[in-house]
Write a structure and sequence with these properties.
Number of helices of chain A: 10
Structural class of chain B: mainly alpha
Largest sheet of chain A: 7 strands, mixed
Number of strands of chain B: 2
Strand content of chain B: under 5%
Helix content of chain A: 40-55%
CATH architecture of the largest domain in chain B: Alpha Horseshoe
Distance between the termini of chain A: 44 Å
Strand content of chain A: 15-25%
Radius of gyration of chain A: 25 Å
Oligomer: heterodimer
Number of domains of chain A: 2
Largest interface: A-B, 93 and 93 residues
Order of helices and strands of chain B: HEEHHHHHHHHHHHHHHHHHHHHH
Shape of chain B: globular
Radius of gyration of chain B: 23 Å
């Protein structure tokens, strides 16, 4: 024992396979309401409240569910929010679920709170786990900042003047730009727009015709995804995320293949039909962001507006470039090789999202 | 002009498709497993004795010997599972004594060990000095102090501690403590032969041999004998395939001689461990392997996750990655410079020099030139970089 310790401690550079312990508390403040989600590593919860009932080292979903009330008590005991003048915003916890972060499974607990008045500053008292793990950190994400909590001292987040609608617009733009599948889908629809069928396919003559066609495509896509975004966000229809993600990837395949086969001329119809699917994808993001129930319409409008702005920016960059090069070999290369590659990649995604 | 733009766009789309494979449009999504028997996480199986000890400590929180035993078990666990989370647990177990200016000696040793692991070398050194003033014959304290002093380039202190180790510990440990210091002072040949002889004469204790072999390999590298280093590291890995230190060093030898594909294969399946992930990302990048983009993405995520919690303990790995994969030499140089403020091992010096040369700012590596002149160190790799 003594000797083993002697050696392992002598190596200066230990090799770490995991992050140290973090928990994430993501909050959105909307008027006097706070909503969000607390993600705590399952392994940390085991140390805190004891999940592994049979002690075999494997924590099962059943063991976790059985411990859910104890977890809720633990969190209620150790997390508190307060608004202006340090008036408490009593915390309510929803039903937990699992979420996979980069270093394993976390317990995702929806949180909500109501303050006495719309706060200008939010005080977060966070005391999870510090007594068990001195290197634990609580990462509080609120109003575009991340506050690192290192001990039981409360942290304060200035909420600033940015309206929550503004933040949803931003999220919408980001979602379009970061979600490669939407960009690829849109690009595939727009690529052939500088060619038109008049008897046979030929380069379009006027920028006006091209612009009109692209406008039709984008409007159809927007209309379609707005419809499904709304009916899904208000809970009328909800589809399993694996299905939606797979279908979105397949829609990218379809749009790319259509460029190769030219089987459907009315690309606005393709845009509309497949746009319906993308709306379900958008709504899942919105729900993950923590949808405020009172400002639902504002959030929906804001997020959708952001999506449209993000889209418009892509179109504005892409279209003039395509128009200028429409008669060149480079354009043909881009159309064929680009669509072919996208079809292939999106097919791989479809397979991964469905089966892996 | 526009043709180039179009080809560029096609290329960018293609690259983007592979850079973010299966990155679904939404952020991390929650789910509910369908089967109550699904395993959602794994932890070490419960040790009844430890449970009893924790209960006893909770009942009488002043029993330092219990806290020390529990903390020591967690430090061992942190090492064997490569999971730093258990360091934080050990620290919390010692919480009652953690902030004392003069805690009991056993607590001092563990506190220094945890501080060293968190790269708080100044605090570790202060604790070890205090411990040694109270327990001059603590071999472990001297050995850890030698390591900490070497990392912070306080070679006289390291020598003093290794001299104490020579008095208190078996000859192989003494030789493995002393040899790197001799090599750093410019006597790599003698150091290599002395340690090799000690290894040949030592009893066959696998954990001890693995450590000594890795140290010996590092001396071989300094002498420019990469083939000998290769052989020593393979022997260490044969003794213990989970020796991440030896695996990383062997991968470095392979990458150094241009066998990036071989290095990537050596590291495949070990990407959980940061030191090995960064090397596999570099190897795949050099070999233009199929996983290059995915590994780079993973490494970016790890760096971002560490930064998010305010950690800067992985500066060395970050600088390696930024230099070799991102190809951003000026940024790598800035990180390598920050890293040199924290730790000053030969690996850090090579990295600093390589970044400075790549950035075309040899003057930027002045601290390395000064350090090399002051120590008298000769290192074949450093000289190759500098030439």
């Amino acid at each position: 024992m003594k000797r083993a310790l002697l050696i392992v401690m002598a190596l200066a550079g230990p090799a770490w396979a995991h992050k140290p312990s973090d928990a994430h508390l993501a909050l959105a403040v909307d008027g006097d309401r706070v909503t969000g989600r607390l993600d705590i590593a399952i392994r940390d919860l085991d140390a805190a409240v004891g999940l592994d009932a049979d002690g075999d080292g494997a924590i099962t979903w059943g063991e976790l569910q059985a411990a859910a009330p104890r977890i809720a008590m633990y969190v209620q005991d150790r997390v508190a929010l307060a608004g202006d003048a340090d008036l408490a915003c009593p915390l309510a916890l929803g039903d937990g679920a699992l979420v996979d972060l980069s270093d394993g499974a976390y317990w995702a607990l929806p949180v909500s709170a109501r303050c006495a008045s719309a706060p200008h500053e939010l005080a977060v008292a966070y005391r999870l786990l510090f007594d068990i793990d001195a290197q634990h950190r609580g990462l509080v994400h609120v109003a575009g900042q991340t506050l690192i909590v290192r001990d039981a001292t409360p942290v304060h987040a200035a909420l600033g003047a940015a309206t929550s609608i503004g933040s949803f617009v931003r999220e919408g733009i980001w979602h379009i730009w970061m979600g490669l599948d939407h960009i690829l889908f849109l690009t595939c629809l727009i690529l052939p727009a500088v060619f038109q069928r008049r008897g046979k396919w030929a380069a379009a003559d006027s920028l006006r015709d091209v612009t009109r066609e692209v406008f039709e495509i984008v409007t159809a896509f927007t209309l379609a995804h707005s419809i499904t975004l709304v009916i899904s966000a208000i809970g009328l229809v909800q589809l399993p995320s694996r299905f939606v993600e797979t279908a979105i990837a397949l829609s990218v395949v379809a749009a790319a293949v259509n460029n190769l086969t030219r089987s459907v001329d009315a690309r606005w119809a393709v845009a509309f039909a497949l746009g319906l699917l993308h709306g379900f994808g958008f709504s899942a993001v919105l729900i993950d962001l923590g949808l405020p129930s009172r400002e639902l319409i504002g959030a929906l409008l804001g997020f959708n507006l952001g999506v449209e702005l993000g889209q418009a920016a892509i179109v504005l960059v892409l279209l003039p470039m395509l128009y200028v090069i429409r008669r060149t070999l480079a354009y043909q290369t881009l159309l064929w090789a680009g669509s072919g590659t996208v079809a292939l990649v999106a097919a791989i995604w479809s397979y991964q999202r469905c089966f892996i | 002009m526009f043709a180039l733009g179009a080809i560029g766009l096609a290329g960018a789309l293609t690259v983007a498709s592979f850079v973010a494979p299966n990155r679904s449009a939404a952020a991390a999504r929650t789910y509910l497993p369908s089967d109550a028997r699904d395993v959602v996480a794994r932890v070490p199986a419960r040790d009844p004795r430890e449970v009893a000890e924790r209960a006893a400590l909770a009942g009488s929180p002043d029993r330092v010997e219990l806290a020390v035993e529990l903390a020591r078990a967690d430090i061992q666990r942190a090492r064997s599972l490569s999971d730093p989370r258990y360091l934080g647990r050990a620290q919390a177990t010692l919480g009652r004594w953690w902030k004392l200016a003069e805690p009991p000696p056993d607590v001092l040793l563990l506190r220094a060990t945890i501080e060293q692991s968190l790269h708080d070398f100044a605090a570790a050194r202060a604790d070890l000095d205090l411990l040694i003033s109270r327990r001059p014959d603590d071999a472990q304290a001297h050995l850890t102090r030698a390591v900490v002093a070497t990392v912070t380039a306080d070679y006289p202190a390291a020598r003093a501690s290794c001299a104490a180790v020579a008095r208190l510990a078996p000859p192989l440990i003494a030789a493995a403590c002393q040899a790197p210091l001799d090599a750093l002072a410019g006597h790599a040949d003698d150091a290599y032969h002395t340690l090799a002889a000690a290894l040949a004469a030592a009893p066959r204790d696998p954990s001890l041999r693995g450590w000594a072999l890795s140290t010996l390999a590092e001396l071989a590298i300094q002498r420019g004998d990469e083939a000998a280093a290769d052989a020593h590291l393979r022997e260490a890995l044969a003794l213990d395939p989970d020796d991440a230190y030896a695996r990383a060093a062997l991968a470095d030898v392979m990458i150094e001689r241009g066998d990036a594909t071989e290095a990537s294969a050596l590291l495949a399946g070990y990407e959980q461990i940061d030191n090995l992930l960064v090397r596999r990302a570099i190897a795949e990048h050099r070999a233009r392997g199929p996983e290059a983009a995915a590994l780079a993405q993973r490494m970016h995520e790890r760096i971002a996750a560490a930064a998010e919690r305010g950690d800067r303990v992985h500066l060395r790995e970050e600088a390696m990655f930024v230099l070799a994969v991102d190809g951003d030499a000026p940024r790598a140089l800035a990180i390598a410079r920050d890293n040199w403020q924290v730790q000053k091992e030969l690996a850090d010096a090579r990295l600093f020099a390589a970044a400075a040369v790549a950035a075309g700012e040899r003057d930027g590596a002045a601290p390395i030139v000064e350090w090399a002149a002051r120590t008298g160190v000769h290192d074949a790799r450093l000289e190759r970089i500098w030439r």
